[in-house]
Write a structure and sequence with these properties.
By secondary structure, this protein is mainly α. It has one domain. Helix content is 45%, strand content 0%. It has six helices and no strands. α3 crosses α5. The radius of gyration is 15 Å and the shape is globular. The two termini are 16 Å apart. The structure holds iron/sulfur cluster.
Length: 83
């Protein structure tokens, strides 16, 4: 579990997509990369639910709470291995 009160401290926050008028002019990614701080805060929001719907609903069987914890701790190799 990332941060025990992370969901109280940080609101849900998503990277902003590029404006439609602009993204229609190319085929590149249109989501901006989130900052390290944003990733840390969003990973901290995971409550490690007793019945983690993210995990049971994931078609790949990813262990999302453990992934979030690794991201929160900036352990990117571990996060990668979890996926
Ligand atoms: S659903 Fe998954 S990602 Fe969301 S808080 Fe629960 S364990 Fe964390």
């Amino acid at each position: 579990m990332g941060k025990i009160d992370g969901f109280l401290l940080y609101d849900r926050d998503l990277p902003l997509p590029e404006a439609v008028e602009s993204r229609l002019k190319h085929y590149r990614e249109f989501q901006s990369l989130p900052s390290s701080e944003l990733l840390n805060h969003q990973a901290a929001r995971c409550m490690d639910c007793g019945i983690p719907f993210c995990q049971s609903a994931c078609p790949l069987g990813n262990i999302i709470p453990e992934f979030n914890d690794a991201v929160y701790k900036n352990q990117w190799k571990k996060a990668y291995d979890i996926l």
